[in-house]
Give the backbone structure.
Amino acid sequence: MLRLEKIYKSYGSLKVIHNLSCKVSEGEMLGIIGPNGAGKTTLFKAISGQIPLDRGKIYFMGEEVTDVPAFKRCVAGIGRTFQIPRPFHGMTIFENARVAANFGAGLIGKEADGFAIQAIELSGLVDRLNTPCSALSLLDRKRLELARALATDPKLLLLDEIAGGLVEEEMHQLIDILKEIGRRGISIIWIEHIVHALTSCVDRLLVINFGEKIADGDPNSVMAKRDVHEIYMGLDMKYP
Ligand SMILES: Nc1ncnc2c1ncn2[C@@H]1O[C@H](COP(=O)(O)OP(=O)(O)OP(=O)(O)O)[C@@H](O)[C@H]1O
Ligand SMILES: [Mg+2]
């Protein structure tokens, strides 16, 4: 469904993504971890088309999308949430999701309304359709991010630290929602620092450091790797 082929991105002399290749299959949930500044959000910007690559290719659903603009990638089925929630503050939950259904899924009228409501329902906010989004708690703002992304009718959903700042109970609620989204056949790439949240539901785990792939595979085997511990957990295992 998604294939990254040797992609590179620098800002000036800072190499943010370096020779990264990766695949995501249909219906798969891939987790991504890596230290702060590793290039994770930049990777999402590259996949969703917000920034151009320096080198490399991106394929989505069998088509090359390397030079396709962001709005077209969204219509093609790449939806994303932002690390810092970005709702339209003057609007209600319903209105926010409907804008996403209009412009992301290309729907209008009753069809857009119905689709927006479905996305809100799946995100656990259906009892607050007409609540202004400025009045929401952190969990609910994260849910709204999810609802807005779902309302674009994604085939692939990119989640950037959607569980950050949530307490354990809230995180479990969010994980249940993500599992349900996965059951509906939507592929997910989920960036998260909370490793146990990721390993409880992803099929595969990718670790990046300084924009390079360090490990990619079954979550438990990846987390058992010594270099992943050293890099990600900040543990120097040679000097315990
Ligand atoms: N537009 C930009 N211009 C210059 N440098 C940038 C830009 N965007 C990101 N960077 C730098 O690129 C590096 C990677 O940033 P990125 O946001 O992708 O990291 P991240 O892995 O998402 O980190 P975090 O875990 O803190 O969210 C950082 O050093 C960041 O300062
Ligand atoms: Mg980030």
Q: What stands out?
A: The beta strands are 2-11, 14-24, 29-33, 55-60, 63-64, 78-80, 156-160, 187-191, 204-209, 212-217. Residues 83-153 form one domain.
